[in-house]
Amino acid sequence: MNVWADLPGQEAAVAQLRRAAADDAPTHAWLFTGPPGSGRSNAARAFAAALQCQAPDPAERGCGTCHACRTVLAGTHPDVAQVATEHVTYAIADVRELIGKAQDKPSGGKWRVIIMEDADRMTERTTNVLLKAIEEPPPHTVWLLCAPSPADVLVTIRSRCRPVSLRVPNTKAVTELLVRRDGLTPEQAEFAARISQGHIGIARRLARDEGARLRRDRTVRLPLGLRSVSDAVIAAGDLVELSTSEATAAAEERGAAEARRLRETLGLAEDAPVPPQLRSQFKQLEETQKRRAKRGVNDSLDRSLIDLTTFFRDVLTLQLKAGTELVNDYLGAELRSYAARSTPEQTLARIDAISEARVRITANVSPLLAMEAMMAGLLPPR
């Protein structure tokens, strides 16, 4: 199985990357863009594997079976660095460290490849630090930046990168991948692919985690119980609680594992007190975990709002008699009843209310206040 197998529905992008991998002098900087679920990071990692591939035939680079391909995909190749910030934005120090790493010659591979996820999380100052490294890169270095859209990256960076545009794969392509790769039944895979709207990672999680499916179902059903302002306040609290509990559980599990690894690195027993000279390292870890936990809650809440939007997307589809497939087809009767009680204009206003809530979350508005304001906007007219 080659490295391109996990990129369903991306035929045009895969063909572009295949041609570049077969070239012994690829472009030094690339910008992978596409909406959430399009597989930006997967595509960048597959391209990195193809660049390092040891297949003798250039047309076969990205074979997926050689040592270089396998180590890149496993994240253990010494000449491929894949980085993502745990903070709201990249710190300048983080980018400077990457630039220093980019100057190193490959230790065994053909190229020094730097994959930078969420490049849209760079501030203008941080971007300016990176700019010179991309303008005048060492001949052996290839930068792979990932962002939702070209507009999310400053034009000074964008103009110096070769673009790779990705799209969210359709339900059929994701279904086939989940059946082949993850061993799901066609029914399980098709349901997960549809309600995830083609997001492969989310589809896999929903198919395997019943708790995740139940949380999503509770979120999508919230508009059905809205009758009064008190209902809106309760629903807002429920939505924040659902998102917070999911993110907190994941953060605590990861945090405990990091603390154990730090103790092992420092030679401390699990229950041994931390010596004063080492406390700064544990304090730094705690601060990093707190920032990451906050971002995790916001990201989880944003995913919940995307799920909530699918309810009104389906309602609007029914009101306009568009004839397209419903994302939440299993709620068909409830959706049709709701659609009959409102107008397309009201539905669009509710979708706008959810979009506004997503913007407020990114602007550090209190999640509960943002959700209460949004839920008030979802109430049926009196």
TrEMBL record:
<dbReference type="InterPro" id="IPR027417">
    <property type="entry name" value="P-loop_NTPase"/>
</dbReference>
<dbReference type="InterPro" id="IPR003593">
    <property type="entry name" value="AAA+_ATPase"/>
</dbReference>
<dbReference type="InterPro" id="IPR050238">
    <property type="entry name" value="DNA_Rep/Repair_Clamp_Loader"/>
</dbReference>
<dbReference type="InterPro" id="IPR004622">
    <property type="entry name" value="DNA_pol_HolB"/>
</dbReference>
<protein>
    <submittedName>
        <fullName>DNA polymerase III subunit delta</fullName>
    </submittedName>
</protein>
<dbReference type="Pfam" id="PF13177">
    <property type="entry name" value="DNA_pol3_delta2"/>
</dbReference>
<feature type="domain" description="AAA+ ATPase">
    <location>
        <begin position="26"/>
        <end position="226"/>
    </location>
</feature>
